[in-house]
Design goal:
The protein contains 11 helices and 12 strands. The protein has helices at 3-32, 39-62, 82-87, 91-94, 99-102, 109-121, 166-221, 230-260, 273-290, 310-326, 385-395, and strands at 66-70, 76-79, 125-132, 138-149, 155-164, 269-272, 294-297, 305-308, 333-340, 344-351, 399-405, 409-417. Strands 2-1-5-4-3 form a 5-stranded antiparallel β-sheet, with helices on both faces. Strands 7-9-10-12-11 form a 5-stranded mixed β-sheet, covered by helices on one side. The protein has a two-stranded antiparallel sheet with strand order 6-8. It starts with a helix and ends in an 8-residue tail after the last strand. Residues 27-32 and 372-379 have low confidence and may be disordered.
């Protein structure tokens, strides 16, 4: 029911009341002046009065809007059947109770009193008030009132009409939340862009001195500036190792920031699996040999190919092999192998290292999560390698999986789509 509908209903009620008053006046005249009264006139007046009252009651009872009479002190003098259908309250049970005690939602009693104050001033129009149903559900009601005054001009009662606007209020709230979410998204994108730009500048500023450190250390090792003792050479090697470690951390941070902002692109194509294995083996073998680890690299069918970005696949596998090296004690074993399935290619990196606790398996692919933390942890890194690797795998429509038993080792599996030679042009 809309505002105009309520206004028309109010007008009909006013006209009905005027008709009742006119009929009542005729009846009184007939009693006072018997000479002018006839039994027919009196009977007609009584019947018309009864019919008008019945029509008035039916109109109010069948009205889909809430209709109630409020006394000047705010107590409910009458409530129609809509209170039962809309709010679940029996109308008779509400009689005599103040509106703010009977119907106002928790925390909105003050708003109900403000409604009562506006009612006393006679200026209630389109007043929104939050009520509660008998089941405790909040219902927004839009109220309009028609005041009735006594012969001295004082407020006798107010007939209040209320329509349920809960759906409209919910739609408005949803629209507001949508706008807030959109604003939050815009702010987040701006923040991500600023973060990426900052990391790019910081990365450049840090890489420059780190590269210089590496270059000067190499020149000293080559004895360009004079002879170098064995002890000095070992110190230079530690300097260069620390430089490579710092550079790796910076690269991880940059890669992660680019992935978050969608700036990393993958170019998928036909990638020979054995060629990938050969490159990864060549780049990681020195690291494993320096730790005294056994390194097994398998081979697949020479024709087996994956549909992926070659550089990204190498990046993921190098990271997995490096992780296996970190967490496998001297004398252990690391294996790099491949496996062909009907529609996918699987690369397995298996180690005999410390393994992963069961409660950590669900977390290791999250950013900045490490299996073992603390100031005394023996392994370097900030916990981004696996997060970056899984994101890259998924960008190539693949995935990164893990199986592990604590104290017995782990197996990471890179799953990639298999190249379909039959579908290629």
């Amino acid at each position: 029911m809309t505002g105009p509908d309520i206004e028309r209903l109010v007008q009909r009620l006013v006209e009905t009341e005027q008709e009742l008053q006119a009929l009542l006046s005729d009846e009184v005249d007939a009693v006072v002046n018997p000479a002018s009264a006839t039994p027919i006139l009196l009977g007609r007046a009584q019947r018309a009065l009864a019919e008008s009252e019945a029509r008035y009651r039916e109109l109010i009872a069948r009205c889909p809007a809430l209709v109630c009479e409020l006394l000047p002190d705010g107590r409910i003098a009458f409530a129609n059947d809509a209170f039962r259908s809309l709010l679940g309250f029996e109308p008779a049970a509400l009689i005599g109770d103040p509106l703010w005690e009977a119907l106002a939602a928790d925390g909105h009693e003050h708003a109900a009193r403000c409604f009562h104050a506006a009612l006393e001033r006679g200026d209630v129009a389109n007043h929104e008030l939050l009520l509660r149903s008998a089941a405790g559900e909040p219902r927004w009601i839009l109220w309009t009132t028609a005041n009735r005054y006594d012969a001295d001009g004082f407020l006798d009662c107010a007939v209040a009409f209320g329509i349920d606007i809960t759906a409209r209020k919910q739609a408005e709230e949803a629209a507001l939340q949508l706008r807030e979410a959109e604003n939050a998204r815009v702010r987040a994108e701006a923040a991500n862009k600023a973060k990426t730009e900052f990391l790019a500048v910081m990365s450049h500023e840090l890489r420059t001195p780190l590269n210089a450190i590496s270059g000067y250390a190499e020149l000293i090792e080559l004895e360009v500036h004079g002879p170098v003792t064995d002890e000095q050479r070992r110190a230079l090697q530690r300097i260069r190792s620390s430089q490579r470690h710092l550079l790796g951390l910076i690269n991880d941070l940059m890669n992660f920031a680019r992935l978050e902002t969608g700036q990393v692109r993958v170019t998928a194509g036909d990638v020979a699996v054995n060629e990938i294995l050969a490159v990864v083996h060549a780049l990681t073998a020195p690291q494993l040999a320096s730790k005294g680890l056994h390194y097994d690299v398998g081979r697949c069918d020479a024709t087996l190919t994956a549909f992926a970005d070659k550089d990204r696949v190498e990046q993921i596998l190098i990271n997995l092999v490096s992780n296996a090296s970190k967490f496998t004690p001297e004398g252990g074993r690391v294996a790099l192998a491949c496996e062909a399935a009907q529609s996918v290619v699987r690369f397995h990196v298996t180690d005999t290292g410390v393994g992963i606790p069961p409660d950590k398996l669900g977390e290791i692919f999250e950013p900045f999560v490490q299996v073992r933390t603390g100031f005394t942890r023996p392994h370097d890194g900030v916990g981004l390698g696996l997060a970056i690797s899984r994101d890259l795998a998924r960008k190539m429509h693949g995935d990164l999986e893990v199986e592990s038993r604590e104290g017995q080792g782990s197996r990471f599996t890179l799953v990639l789509p298999r190249f379909d030679h039959a579908a290629s042009p």
